[in-house]
Amino acid sequence: MFQATHGAAAVTECVSKTPLMTDLYQLTMMQTYLARGMTERAVFEFFVRSLPAERRFLLSAGLEQVVEFLASLHFEDDELTWLEREGHADSRLIDYLAQVHFTGDIDAMPEGTVFFPDEPILRITAPLPLAQLVESRVLSLLHFATLIASKAARVRLAAEDRLLVDFGMRRAHGSEAGVLAARSAYLAGFDGTATVLAGKSFGIPLFGTMAHSFVIAHEREMDAFETYARNHPDNTVLLIDSYDTLEGARKAVRLAERLRGSGIRIRGVRLDSGDLATLSRGVRDILDAGGLGDATVFASGNLDEHAIRALLAKGAPIDGFGVGTRMDVSADAPYLDCAYKLQEYAGQARRKRAEGKTTWPGRKQVYRHYSADGRMAGDCLTLEDDPQQGEPLLRPVMREGRLLAPLPTLADAREHTQAQLERLTQTLRELTPGPSDYPVDISPALSELVRTLDSAA
């Protein structure tokens, strides 16, 4: 694949920063809180209630975007004017919003951490109106990033060490989604993306070759190939399935002979349609027989972890994959049953008891245990002030609105993700639907808090 150069991560231009990216009921609740003087500290936690049938684990993502959103939280004058004019906020709320900025605390699992149902991956502690205001945007950012990272991690497990490139921006549900999906995929182990803004915003390596339109625009397929090769002599990868795939491979071989005197080498070919297992074998044979044994075969076209695993099980000689639509919309599990719930207010634990949506109350921590071979062996969900043996997964990130330390770079978060995936058990690595059988124990202290709150209700 053609790989463009890239620089250090720049400003994230793709992500909306306005606090109007919220639900109206956040403002109506805030207005009532202020009227009643309910401004004491509240604790909210983000967690997933249950795993989709197609998932055995989830991968936390989106913390960087949440921190950026909270760190820049403020209302512009025209936003306040609009809220007041439209009757969505009274004068007391307008005055509050005019001065608002994030003054709370954040504790979170590092991005790329494997987690399971009921385990909070982020906790916000802040005055109740402020913690309520940010709910919708925080939930949106964490949900989408985690959804795509969890899907992309499965693709990486299926592809093993082969090249993986995100191709999904054009089919994502909006431009922001396309760029953030590229980030989540890279976090989970993809090698790069075709989305240019993701390269600029996050320093993700960019990959790309040509479309079928480029080939069809030329009178002859060979003309398209040669024109491209001479304009991109250092990264000549040819899309060979616009007409006859095997004949396209033969033309690549003939062109290689013609280009050899100019010092141009054909680095690979791409297949985007048809029976990829059969075609890749035929193409590989043609390339090898024609002296292009070092040219790679790259495949794309409606792929996901299941398609990739099936291709490799058939022995398809494919060196890399472009994965788009099915990953960027997480086609087999397009949403997570996630929540951002109040767990404590004014120093008192709170618990929702609605049928099917009960919560574990209080400020919580997750401790992880490992087996002798370093694999994940089980977690314990407990209260923050109830230390357990094992590795605590939630770590302090912000205090009183200030970062305690710079967040890990995306490259460092990627390394953490890889280490997490290497510690998965064989059962968790399975791609077929089924229970994860991963134990998450509830501590006696948390169970006792539940009994106390329920008996007092």
TrEMBL record:
Q: Which CDD domains match?
A: NAPRTase_A
Catalysed reaction, written as an equation: 5-phospho-alpha-D-ribose 1-diphosphate + nicotinate + ATP + H2O = nicotinate beta-D-ribonucleotide + ADP + phosphate + diphosphate
Functional pathway: Cofactor biosynthesis; NAD(+) biosynthesis; nicotinate D-ribonucleotide from nicotinate: step 1/1
Q: Where would I find the Nicotinate phosphoribosyltransferase C-terminal domain in this sequence?
A: 388-449
Mod. after translation: Transiently phosphorylated on a His residue during the reaction cycle. Phosphorylation strongly increases the affinity for substrates and increases the rate of nicotinate D-ribonucleotide production. Dephosphorylation regenerates the low-affinity form of the enzyme, leading to product release.
Gene Ontology MF annotations? nicotinamide phosphoribosyltransferase activity; nicotinate phosphoribosyltransferase activity
Source taxon at top rank: Bacteria
Q: Where is the Nicotinate phosphoribosyltransferase N-terminal domain?
A: 20-142
Q: Which GO terms describe its biological process?
A: NAD+ biosynthetic process via the salvage pathway
The UniProt keyword set, sorted, is:
Glycosyltransferase, Ligase, Phosphoprotein, Pyridine nucleotide biosynthesis, Transferase
Family to which the UniProt record says this protein belongs = Belongs to the NAPRTase family.
PANTHER family with a match to the protein in the record: NICOTINATE PHOSPHORIBOSYLTRANSFERASE
Name used for this protein in its record: Nicotinate phosphoribosyltransferase
> To which species is this protein native?
Acidihalobacter aeolianus
